[in-house]
Design brief:
By secondary structure, the chain is α+β, with helices and mostly antiparallel strands. It contains 5 helices and 6 strands; from the N terminus they run ααααββαββββ. It has 2 domains: 55 residues, no CATH class; 117 residues, Nuclear Transport Factor 2, Chain: A (Roll), CATH 3.10.450. Helix content is 35%, strand content 32%. Strands 2-1-6-5-4-3 form a 6-stranded mixed beta sheet, covered by helices on one side. Strand 3 and strand 4 form a beta hairpin. The protein is globular. It starts with a helix and ends with a strand. It comes from Sphingobium cloacae. This is SnoaL-like domain-containing protein. It holds the Pfam family SnoaL_2.
Amino acid sequence: MIASLVRACRHALSNDSAIPQIRREGAGLTRSGFLRVAAAGVLSAGIAVGAGRAFAAGSSGIAPVTDLDKFYDAWQDRFNAHDIEGMVDLYVADVTYINPEGKELIGKTGVRADFEGLFAMKPQIDLHDRKHIVYHDIALTTNHWTLKLTDAAGKAQELTGGGIEVVRKESDGGWRFIIDDASRSAS
């Protein structure tokens, strides 16, 4: 905001100002000229704040999940909606992801491919027995899950399992997986 005010003041004090009401008078601006410059700076700052919020939502426009207690709710909602972009946004770029079959995948590309294949079967999941232990901006989380889907042969299936994950609070305030191991037994 200060930079916006400085630019507006410099512009207003220049000889070829585009704001005719703000005049150069000796040592500075008139009171009304200052108020116009301040209003321009506040307007500029407001635009910058809006842009900052849009940037915080990521280039995808998806708002980060900033409440750890709602993180699994968001994951479950996005999963059940088969929202691939929303799901991938919950992972850091270089995540270590272990799918339910125990296959280790590194990065969002692997996460995306795994979920795209799974979403083709129109699954629905219920995450329960959710727990997390927090240390500063990192949390160890666990859950049990029940997954219902229809396999390629058209047969309804119900699978159970558990997950143990590590999530980290990122610079935009959102929690994201840095390690997601969905291959644990639900026993």
